[in-house]
Amino acid sequence: MKPPPFEYFAPDSVDEALGAIQRGGPDAKFLAGGQSLVPAMNFRIAQPTLLVDLNRIRDLDFIRSADDGLRFGAMTRQHSLETDPQVAKQAPLLAEAVPFIAHPQIRNRGTFGGSLVHADPASELPVVALALQARMRLAAGGGERWISAEDFFQGMFTTALAPDEMLVEIALPPWPADAGGAFVEFSRRSGDYALMGVAAVLRVDGDRACTEARLVFLNAGDGPVAAPEAAAMLVGRPVDEMSAGDAADHAAEKEIDPMGNLHATPAFQRHLARVLVRRAILTAAARASDRHGSNGRRDD
Amino acid sequence: MTDNRKSISVTVNGKAYASIVEPRLLLSDYLRHELGLTGTHVGCEHGVCGACTVQLDGQPVRSCLIFAVQADGAEIRTVEGIAPGPEALHPLQEAFWTTHALQCGFCTPGILMTLLPWLEEHPDPTADEVRHALSGNLCRCTGYQHIVEAVLAAADRMRAGATATR
Fold this sequence. Notes:
The complex is a heterodimer of chains A (300) and B (166).
Chain A (H helix, E strand, L loop, with lengths): L6 E3 L4 H11 L3 E4 L5 H6 L7 E4 L9 E4 L2 E5 L4 H6 L1 H6 L1 H6 L6 H4 L4 H7 L5 H8 L3 E6 L2 E6 H4 E3 L2 E2 L6 E7 L6 E8 L9 E9 L5 E9 L6 E2 L1 H7 L6 H15 L10 H29 L6
Parallel strand pairs in A: 1-3, 2-3
Antiparallel strand pairs in A: 4-5, 5-10, 6-7, 6-10, 8-9, 11-12, 12-13, 13-14
Chain B lengths: L5 E7 L2 E7 L5 H8 L18 E4 L2 E4 L12 E3 L13 H8 L9 H14 L5 H7 L11 H15 L7
Parallel strand pairs in B: 1-5
Antiparallel strand pairs in B: 1-2, 3-4, 3-5
Helix pairs in contact in B: 2-5
């Protein structure tokens, strides 16, 4: 199908875009990469009256390394996240997750910010943002504010953004020297929406005992779903089959709420969650230990 | 209805075009209906099948998920622009022909436009890598076996310096 008629404006600056969205009223929308919005418009699920296209705002497309971590413009393409050497080094979890997003043709257009704002519970970037404790900078006509990923995601396709606000920048904190991450998911075919997926971030000491953990699932509820209780069960214990299994059981049984779909019952999704998070915990811990080894701080 | 049409200038396969378009016109429909370049095929119109893949400023993208108005100022390459002349085929097209990598041919333009830049970055791919590169393009008739063979054969010839055949 084809989208219904709409007005179109492609400004060069954030200020112009914010002004346009305010004048456009409740049915005006920002257009980022368009890889979710345009299909929804083609299906006439979404019928915005005005599209404010952000693709010509150069200031929104950057990856910068700062003292306090990595900074990304909201219009940074997913393909750039996948190929940027700073991301590979300073946010390896992000680099690992991006190739799971759809197909290369989609990642050439799809953006970091667009995916976060869309807040699809099945998408990868909200999960990574929560697992890496990202902060987002939101701009509006009246000023701007920073918000944590935890406060940003508020449910199914729902975020803390006000109607006239724009996500302009994403900040990731520095990647600690004793941290390891892993992103795993299961889908029926390469590039499909995953039936289940999980990001694990662990910090370990020289004896491979966990000092800090974060586990976040996709397609396991109405947004990116964190499992703080399972993560807390890991802290203070050596990360091995036993502790990873205990945490996996708890997360899969108590902390996620998968809805099921055409291809998987909720019970099967819980099974996948248990298997995948166990794998992610062990992989993340092994990677963290390797970094201890390569830093020369390991005794054995 | 108010006239919300916009003027755009695009370069398609090296040729400049100026048009006035409705914002809702998809790039795929612009190429086919306004420019008559019907080599770009339209399958699902929601970004899943890959048939409409074209190159926008050198990168493969779904032309059904971009509005023509967004392409203002861009360089676009479609399947009509890959052969060096009317009597010649690109080595990748030639390989599809000789290995029977197409039956109905509906998916072929999207596959060619996806793989041409990919082969420049991956001149010596394995069959497994080719399958991954193809994962965003659906073929519903010949199956993928011959398509993978064609890509491997084309990569061999392109590494040997082939640019076109008559």
